[in-house]
C-alpha cells in the first residue's frame, strides 16, 4: 500500500479512537444534547407567521453549525497545536511523512464533524415533528450537502491552521467564526437582517450549507422563508464548489510553506514563548 495512504489510515484509527474515548468525545455528545433541549422548547413557536416552527428551522441550522465549525476549527486547531508541540516535526520521520499525517487529520476531523449530525437527527426525530427528510432524494441531498460542506470548509480550516500561530490567535479566529453564524441565516431567515448583512451572509459558505440542509429537511412550503422564495440549489452548489476550489488551491500552498518551516528551533521558540508569556 502507498506509504501516504497507509500512514493516513493508521492516523485515522488512532486519532478517531482518542477523539471518541476522551473528554473531547463527550463534548460532541453534550453540545448536541443542549441543542436538542433548545429545539424541544421551541417546537411550538412558529416563524414569521408560517406553519414552520423554530425547532424545524433550527434543526438544519444546528447541523450546519456543527459541520461548518467542525470543518473550519477542527483541522485548524489541530494543525496550529501540532505545529507548535512538535507533532508535525516528528511526522517527517515516519513513512508517508507530513502528507500522511495531514490526510489522516482531514479524514479524522471530517468524521468527528459529522458525528453530532447523527445525534441531532435521531434526537430531533424523537422530540420534534417534521425534521427528517421524507423521500429518498431528500436523504441523498442531506448526505450530499453534508459532504460538500466539509469539502468547502476544511481546506479553509487547513489554511487557517497553517497560517495562524499560537492559541491566542486561534481563539480570536474561533470567536470571529462563531460570530459569523449570527449573520449566516441558519437560525433565523436572512431576510430579517439589513440588506448589507444579507450580502455578507450570502458570501459565507455557512449560509449555503444551511440552504441545502433546509431544502433536504423542511417541507416545500418553507421555501417562502428564503431570500428569493426558493431553495436556489443551483446557486448553493456553485457557491460551495467555489469555496472548495479556492481552498483546494490555497491549502497546499499554505501547508507546503508550513512544512518547510518545521524545525527543532521553531518548536523550541514556540515552547519558550509559552513558558514566558503563557500562550
TrEMBL record:
Where does the ABC transmembrane type-2 domain start and stop, copy by copy? 23-258
In the bilayer, the protein is annotated as:
Multi-pass membrane protein
Which keywords belong to this entry? Membrane, Transmembrane, Transmembrane helix
The record, for InterPro entries, names:
ABC2_TM, ABC2_TM_bact-type, Nod_factor_ABC_transporter
Whether Transmembrane helix counts among this entry's keywords is: yes
Q: Where are the transmembrane segments?
A: 20-42, 62-81, 102-127, 139-164, 171-191, 233-255
Under the heading PROSITE patterns, the entry gives: ABC_TM2
Give compartment(s): Membrane
> What name has this protein been given in UniProt?
Transport permease protein
Give the source species.
Mobilicoccus caccae
- The organism's taxonomic lineage, starting at the top: Bacteria, Bacillati, Actinomycetota, Actinomycetes, Micrococcales
Amino acid at each position: 500500500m502507498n506509504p501516504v495512504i497507509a500512514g493516513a489510515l493508521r492516523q485515522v484509527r488512532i486519532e478517531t479512537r482518542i477523539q471518541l474515548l476522551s473528554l473531547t468525545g463527550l463534548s460532541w455528545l453534550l453540545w448536541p444534547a443542549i441543542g436538542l433541549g433548545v429545539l424541544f422548547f421551541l417546537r411550538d413557536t412558529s416563524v414569521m407567521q408560517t406553519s414552520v416552527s423554530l425547532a424545524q428551522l433550527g434543526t438544519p441550522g444546528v447541523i450546519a453549525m456543527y459541520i461548518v465549525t467542525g470543518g473550519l476549527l477542527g483541522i485548524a486547531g489541530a494543525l496550529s497545536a501540532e505545529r507548535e508541540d512538535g507533532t508535525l516535526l516528528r511526522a517527517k520521520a515516519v513513512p508517508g511523512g507530513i502528507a500522511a499525517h495531514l490526510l489522516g487529520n482531514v479524514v479524522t476531523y471530517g468524521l468527528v464533524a459529522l458525528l453530532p449530525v447523527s445525534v441531532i437527527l435521531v434526537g430531533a426525530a424523537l422530540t420534534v415533528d417534521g425534521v427528517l427528510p421524507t423521500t429518498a432524494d431528500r436523504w441523498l441531498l442531506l448526505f450530499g450537502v453534508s459532504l460538500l460542506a466539509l469539502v468547502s470548509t476544511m481546506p479553509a480550516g487547513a489554511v487557517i491552521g497553517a497560517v495562524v500561530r499560537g492559541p491566542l490567535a486561534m481563539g480570536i479566529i474561533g470567536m470571529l467564526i462563531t460570530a459569523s453564524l449570527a449573520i449566516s441565516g441558519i437560525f433565523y431567515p436572512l431576510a430579517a437582517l439589513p440588506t448589507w448583512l444579507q450580502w455578507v451572509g450570502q458570501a459565507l459558505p455557512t449560509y449555503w450549507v444551511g440552504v441545502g440542509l433546509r431544502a433536504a429537511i423542511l417541507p416545500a412550503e418553507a421555501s417562502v422563508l428564503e431570500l428569493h422564495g426558493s431553495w436556489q440549489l443551483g446557486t448553493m452548489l456553485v457557491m460551495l464548489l467555489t469555496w472548495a476550489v479556492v481552498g483546494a488551491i490555497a491549502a497546499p500552498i499554505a501547508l507546503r510553506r508550513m512544512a518547510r518551516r518545521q524545525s527543532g528551533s521553531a518548536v523550541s521558540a514556540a515552547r519558550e514563548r509559552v513558558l514566558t508569556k503563557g500562550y
